[in-house]
Design a protein that fits this description.
CATH class: Alpha Beta
Number of domains: 1
Radius of gyration: 21 Å
CATH architecture: Alpha-Beta Complex
CATH topology: Spore Coat Polysaccharide Biosynthesis Protein SpsA, Chain A
Oligomer: single chain
Strand content: 25-35%
Distance between the termini: 24 Å
Shape: globular
């Protein structure tokens, strides 16, 4: 079962980082956020990925090629006068991943990117998520939930925290309480989808937006279910988000780090 990762956007709200690299390569603890997401899926037993590439796609390709090559491992070099040198890796690759790098266009919308990789989906079901969000979600439980209801799609939802303190105020303007960055009592889409391949029928072209065109349509038809995630989720949308996630990693308190080195 494949995991499709949306990696083609320009990440304009993180412009401090994304003028020279694509957003999925912005680092947390020395590793791209994309690497963290893939480590989470592979921790749960899912090792096959399709990367929907667009903006600065060559940078993402180069990163993973280098990661798999001798450049990031111990190796032995044997020179041979009059012949080609021989390079022998002396340590195993770090991760057991099978990755398809799919060029889906620099300006293509989210639904259009998914439509373009239909040819790489072999099973009836596949995962999809964004290339900028980390979570401690158990994707096996998510998949179990999806199979239990038999509908076309599942979206993972969560209650986010506001970045502001909130006050309780009476009608006569007396402040009776203060809550620092509480959770908002309204669910948001945090990605981590499971789709039946029938969903490709709802994606008409490159302009198709998953969140605006596809999901509302299948919701109207009663084919979209919500998986409520009560644990950790955060999206690296701004420079401040990047700083926060790096601080958690540095302290050894990153909730999404489910794997052991």
């Amino acid at each position: 079962m494949k995991t499709v990762l949306l990696c083609g956007g320009k990440g304009t709200r993180l412009r401090e980082k994304t003028e020279s690299i694509p957003k999925p390569l912005v680092e947390i603890g020395g590793y791209p956020i994309l690497w963290h997401i893939m480590k989470m899926y592979s921790h749960h037993g899912f090792h096959d990925f399709v990367l929907c590439l667009g903006y600065l796609s060559d940078r993402i390709k180069d990163y993973f090629v280098d990661l798999a090559s001798y450049k990031t491992r111990d190796f032995q070099l044997e020179t041979n006068a009059g012949g080609d040198p021989k390079i022998t890796p002396l340590s195993a690759a770090r991760d057991d991943w099978n990755i398809i790098f799919a060029e889906t266009g620099e300006e293509t919308m989210t639904g259009g990117r998914i439509r373009r990789i239909e040819k790489y989906i072999d099973d009836d079901l596949f995962f999809v998520t964004y290339g900028d969000g980390v979570s401690d979600i158990d994707v096996n439980e998510l998949l179990k939930f999806h199979k239990s209801h038999g509908r076309m799609a599942t979206v993972t939802v969560t209650l986010p925290r506001t970045s502001f303190g909130m006050l309780n105020i009476t009608d006569d303007n007396v402040v009776t309480g203060f809550r620092e960055k509480p959770k908002i009592e309204s669910f948001v889409n945090c990605g981590f989808f499971v789709f039946n391949r029938k969903i490709f029928d709802y994606m008409s072209g490159d302009e198709s937006v998953l969140e605006r065109d596809v999901l509302p349509k299948i919701a109207e038809e009663g084919q979209l279910m919500a998986y409520r995630h009560r644990g950790f989720w955060d999206c690296m949308d701004t420079y401040k988000d990047n700083v926060t996630l790096n601080e958690q990693w540095a302290k050894g308190t990153a909730p999404w780090k489910l794997w052991s080195e």
